[in-house]
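A common beginner's mistake is to predict each chain separately and then try to dock the pieces by hand. The better habit, illustrated here, is to supply every component at once so that their relative placement is modeled jointly.
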Amino acid sequence: MDRQEWIDRNRKYSVIDSASGFALNLAGMKFTPAQLDALKPKFAAAHQEMVKLEAGAVKNPDEKRQVTHFTDRAAYPSDPVFAEVEAFAAALRSGELKGGTGKKFEQLVVNGIGGSALGPQLMQFALNGPYWNELTEAKRQGWLRIYFVDNTDPAGVKDALAALDLEKTLVLSVSKSGGTQETKNNTIAFAHAFAAAKLSFVRHAAAITMAGSELDRQARSEGWLKVIPMAESIGGRTSETSVVGHLPAALAGVDFRSFIAGACHMDQLTRDPEILANPAYALAATWHIAGNGKGDRNMVIVPYSDRLVLLSRYMQQLVMESLGKEKDLDGKTVHQGLNVFGNKGGTDAHAFIQQLNDGRDDFFVTFIESLQDAMEIPIPGGVTMGDYLHGFETGLSNALLERGRQVIQIQIAKVDAFNLGMLIALYERAVAVYAELVHINAFNQPGVQAYKLASKGVIELTLAVQAAVGKLAGWKGSAADFAAKAGLDASQLVEIEGLLARLAANSDTRPIGAVKPKRRFDAQAASWIYEF
Amino acid sequence: MDRQEWIDRNRKYSVIDSASGFALNLAGMKFTPAQLDALKPKFAAAHQEMVKLEAGAVKNPDEKRQVTHFTDRAAYPSDPVFAEVEAFAAALRSGELKGGTGKKFEQLVVNGIGGSALGPQLMQFALNGPYWNELTEAKRQGWLRIYFVDNTDPAGVKDALAALDLEKTLVLSVSKSGGTQETKNNTIAFAHAFAAAKLSFVRHAAAITMAGSELDRQARSEGWLKVIPMAESIGGRTSETSVVGHLPAALAGVDFRSFIAGACHMDQLTRDPEILANPAYALAATWHIAGNGKGDRNMVIVPYSDRLVLLSRYMQQLVMESLGKEKDLDGKTVHQGLNVFGNKGGTDAHAFIQQLNDGRDDFFVTFIESLQDAMEIPIPGGVTMGDYLHGFETGLSNALLERGRQVIQIQIAKVDAFNLGMLIALYERAVAVYAELVHINAFNQPGVQAYKLASKGVIELTLAVQAAVGKLAGWKGSAADFAAKAGLDASQLVEIEGLLARLAANSDTRPIGAVKPKRRFDAQAASWIYEF
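With all components supplied together, the output reads:
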């Protein structure tokens, strides 16, 4: 392509919102006008579905529910819950509402996983930065430090406890269903920790969950400090603009109203039926063409911004959990999906981007640039540090294009709440309309059922193994011997061996009754031997 | 596969190191004995190359250098540099060596990018945890807090400065070549910040770089507190077991000797010529078979450990920068590569793993499990939190296998320095031998040259644009008008528009002489209009 064609293509395939300074530039993607035209009927149909969605149709047929994240957020700032959350946060900040021993709350544990954690983590990192917790109370203007416990790893709890002063800590458990096992486990762990410190957990506990859920019932019956309801019609991975994003943000001093305003502004832009006037549709169109409607290229997301390093992790959930589906809406097996990864530029140029330049041509990359620099840092020679960051981005983009690789460029005015809202709303809409193009349900996650069931089976086996070990003091033998001796299902030998290995590794801190299982390797038998 | 076959396959394709408790289980990968056999001649040749590599052959022909990370680390603990680093760290910890104003060093800035940052970040997070910086001096036993500045984003510098007390801060600049622009920019930024605070930067500055490099000359001529040399024969992405990993680790109280011991232990295990006795060869063999020797499947790395969340980012660089190559060793165009992504389990099961379960079958996943729990947290019902983590891993693995997906499982005894050393050495060797199998140079990164050159061009254009803007006070028009007016190359209009957008966005904090560029969108012309 000669330079003039390239310049024209940039003009033709840029979607610019002059009000916010947002721009999406798709010139670096390989598609022809004919390919875009061919998608028009699909988009016309998809657009009708998006209209229905916003009008309240059941768009998640598996769960028989509406999908209201696009519409609820416009109404949310005038909802009484919004005011309640703000008032709660203000009361903690001012010290009007104190912990059980009369101390001001200074630390917040957000206990949630997946959709209940990734959005709050992204927002906290993007808007308050990596070192927020280390800033003085004055620099934080009285807002709370934040800690995320987003798994069921004892190490995560231990690390948080080492940094927390429980007398000043609020534990916020977030689970839409209220039954998420990982979150439940952490609630139990913190309740134990408070009890061990002779503190009242319930006076330091808050919850966000659906009304009537297991967590809701527990929190209300025990008299937790605060329980905030969340809507059934908002899925976890699209809950960041709801109370799930709001409460942690409010407690850390984030201007959530501005974040919502940004999301709603993008919602306005992305209700346009014209593909090239609608940044979400334009984005989805290029994803579809690049990946042959099957996700044949990985989506690499590289924001040129330290503060946005978690964006790709957030988008990874949003895109892959929404689009990674076995069946389409007619029940046909399609194995859809779209892989997402990336960290941040220019750093990634010193890491995996060697492969993007030279290696497999199996991706398209999305660069996201903030026009405004956080600070002017002059570098001798007449430019600033920000000019270098921009120079590296432009240089890399040109080098990739030169080699025939595909590049999307997004500009935002700056990294702030409004623009973060725009970015999230953009991808939420792009994912929803892409799902329509490939005729799948973007709002369920059926794939997790199988593994949850299988995990339950392992927990049952764990109990059986422990019970047997407890009765076999003094015994020794292989895992197969053990299964036979204990009358356990020998077909589960692989799982049993895994459980015995753990019992042996943890026996010092967790004996099974009087038994402290050990293991040693018998080289001749090529097998571990366990001793109880 | 029936259960007995499955159990036999687990036994047959597990590589167990009983001394350390390490195990690699490849049973969940789809390969036949015949496919493994077919690789034997390739492995025999590759093994000879690995032997040559360790004997000191030039294995990076582009850069005409040896590759010594496997061998140097065995000797490193008895090298005088090792003792020098430990003594330096001890002197800072004790306060024997103080900052320019006589205060004890309490904070360390690691200024480095790519290979100079990812390893230290991984190690710090894995061994000292996410909240190390928030722990009291007593809990840190006098060791330093750590901050990473790993880009050239002014936001990164600003965030670090907000958390730092410069009188107590050591800035460690790490650049093998000594000419890395991003690192140089940060050095300049910190030198400015110290000067602005009327503090002596050189009494707070240290460097790790090759003897004779630009950074080395600067540090020595200015009299920096410490300069530690690094070997030319160790590449950035394999430098974590060298002084690059050592100095930051030592300053944060990490037992680096144990880390090296772990790496060397794995080096011993991975010098075995037999594929199934050598965990690195076995791993590389399954990568090769799964991806048809071309990386046709993404490598998803999911450690079931909060502390290891950065492992996939580290492996992403190690694998993709090493294997993502255009040419093979004979100059043939091959476009090799192997995509890597992932975060941590069980968390990821609530994010992208929906797609792995149900969506595209275009990956293999590697689960990494620590047998020892960080803490015993009992959950009502008779199991612990760690049992749940294990249960979720096993359940997910079984669910994936049930659906015909491919799974590698790695067990380590616990998350500590020794085991981290083992993991890093395992993947270093696997990558090196895989590169031999596909006949590429694993140790160069030619793809970055093109983008560095292109970036340099953008910086030159930046200077030209700024110079022109400074002379055009009162002028207004489009970017095209500007290019014509200023006599700039109109073929670079896309780049010029990008630069003008930045000047407008930052004009309040960075006027160009007397000019504060603004822009507004002219809807009729569908173009930004700039006003100087």
